[in-house]
Amino acid sequence: MNKPAMQNGAPPRAWTAICVWLLVALLGIGVLFRTTFTADLTAFLPKDPTEEQQLLVEQLRDGMVSRMILMGIEGADPQARAALSRSLAKQMRENDEFISVNNGEPVNQEADHAYLFNNRYLLSPAVTPDHFGTEGLHTAIGETIDLLASPAGLLVKDILPQDPTGEMATLIAQFNSGQQPRKQHGIWVARDGSRALLLAQTRALGSDTDAQEAAINHIREKFERARAEVGKQHAAASSASLILTGPGVFGVNARNTISTEASLFAIASATLIMGLLFFTYRSGMAVLLGLAPVLSGILAGTVAVSLGFGTVHAITLGFGTTMIGEAIDYAIYLFIQSGSARNSAEWARKSWPTIRLGVLTSMAGFGALLFSGFPGLAQLGLYTIAGLISAAFVTRYVLPSLLPREFVVRDLSHVGRTVQRAIDFLQKLRWILLLIFALACATLWLQRDQLWQAELGALSPVSQADKDLDEKLRKDIGAPDVRYLVVVKGKSLEDVLQAAEKVAPRLDTLVEEGQLAAYETPTRYLPSRAAQRVRLASLPSAEQLQARLGQAVQDLPVQTSVLAPFVSSVDALARVNADEQTREQRLLTRKDLAGTSMAMATDALLIEQKDVATALLPLTANAEHVIDAERMRAELARSGVERVYFIDLKAETDKLYNGYMHEAVLLALYGMLAMTIMLGFTIRSAAGLARVMIPLVIAVLSVAAFFAATGERMTILHLVGLLLIVAVGSNYALFFAQPPKDEHGNPTAIAPTTLASLVFANVTTVIGFGVLGFSSVPILSAIGKTVGIGVILALLYAAVFSGSLRPRAANASHDSSRSTGTP
């Protein structure tokens, strides 16, 4: 049975290090259990975001558009699809997970009609003093009479005595101002009639992926139940299928795709790496101990961010764990270069200074991120620095004492000698590599304006086919474009309702000009109290109205006696207006919408928080699907509303992402500068500094040129990969650039075991990240290809250029004792 080396009497310092490690780990675990993890998009926001940026994140996270689910029922025949639509909608309406479910059925029709009719004079924007003047009455009644010959004639005829001025017609026209879906068998269908359509809005926030997934699963379950029930009357129902789309569906599918592929590739790479390490170490305990630096780094990084920022963003955890991936190399250097537990002290004396310098180099590079104006980047910097410090501490002071006493790795000196021969050969051909590098620089220069991806959508795993389906269903159903919104902010609901009423005429202008197809506003269902008061004040008394009607209908085919119900209704409201207390009680509130389908629409468009209220006005673009942002903002400015914003979700998202990318690139360059300065002070030699930095710069530029040449624009994930190339590659360059010295201070050849350890560390990194390059998920393939290609080039360039630039060794004796080079 293998016993840890420390059991033979570890020095007090080793025991102290182990105790400190365990104590800190226990404290860290305690902090971890109290840590708040969040996937909040505020990680992408600057510390002091603009109002538009804050609104953008609110809408992406909590907004109405993020909670929409569009459904299509395909297959079967029209009758079966209609029956399935009704059955599915009925079941969903009974489920509290959905705020609204619409399939074209006249649900709540009686309640809706009663609300509109009974409150028509409070709801109709046409109600003004002029509207109830003699000329206004003449015009309004004449237009209503003209409607008798239209398809709406039956409805108008029935209510003409109560509503001769056409307030109901005005309200209905408002609600139908946008594109309406085609109806067949009483339910919504696609333009070509090939599928039934439904539109639902979840109660859960769009950012709550778990709740969105639960809602989607319930929809599928209810559809299967509907298919079984409808199939009893319509045999064709069994061939029907359900399609779903929308932001929530995209989010759930993306998470599942990423999770599935990440798990698959993680298992594959872990199996290969563990197999390789077990073959090399010949000890299962050593393989497990090799994970200690990485796990300690993850714990330390998470705890540091939790204590420093209060919460840990998911983006920090994901990227940060990737960034400290070099920590697994530390154990490989220890195990292979020392060769056995007995030689760990010698390894610490000879090799540790080089690794320590590599750690400090990485910390200097990542330290620049701490000064970011974006919390996500600042957290990433702190996470990486804390993680690397912890991993380095464990490797240097803990692992040597925990190694099994009889631990001896496989003799890999022959691998090192083979590598040395390959290096000697490649150094003779380095002019070819220089030519390749020159071509890389030329490619980067020619493609300098096309290097970085400007659209966040490039990171989405959603296929183009799914995007096309979403666009098609959205067109068929006439749903508001998830891209465009007008947002009004205020201190209270009354403030934002009044502001929305001031904005509406400006939007009407754009609709009339064809700049805008339609828009939605909560004031159609719930006008501000101020607007309702003005409308009540516009209503004349019975005596005034009778006199005006007598003149208004003189040349119209209607008798004033027929309009007695109209006079009575108006007079009742006019009397209400005469008493302030009664008037205030009559004004509509949110409670009056209860039981109507408009209640759900109002809840979606009005958001009331502690100290602020928000009104959303979704916009439907014109046939060209484009809204002129400059013109829109100019019209909104003319409204006189102070806190009104036009939000192009796509444009604002891309703008925010570009700002994030720009700062990340800038900080990465600052990090490279910090690394260079630190290495310069440490090495104290321009030639030595060049030997370290040249391979890193060439490797990074070569990888960037590869993506430019293949037409793949780089994203934030590629940048993370480039940073990791520098972090890992700096260790390679330091080992090659600074020749080992004998006891007299004369340079010697690099030990074969040192070369072997570098190769094995490189292979594990390539396996760990390279397999991700085959993923269909952009965020996985980007970092996989970047790191997989980059670390190979970093090792190659370090061996060829660093080795050829350093002073020649005084002797080339091979180290049979497995000793390694020291800086």
Automatic annotation (TrEMBL):
It is a multi-pass membrane protein. Residues 187-403, 663-799 form the Membrane transport protein MMPL domain. Pfam families: MMPL. GO terms for cellular component: plasma membrane. This is Membrane protein. It comes from Oxalicibacterium flavum. PANTHER family: MEMBRANE PROTEIN MJ1562-RELATED (PTHR33406), MEMBRANE PROTEIN YDFJ (PTHR33406:SF13). Keywords: Cell membrane, Membrane, Transmembrane, Transmembrane helix. The chain crosses the membrane at residues 262-279, 286-309, 315-336, 357-374, 380-399, 429-446, 660-681, 688-709, 715-737, 749-773, 779-800. SUPFAM superfamilies: Multidrug efflux transporter AcrB transmembrane domain. It is found in: Cell membrane. The keyword Transmembrane applies.
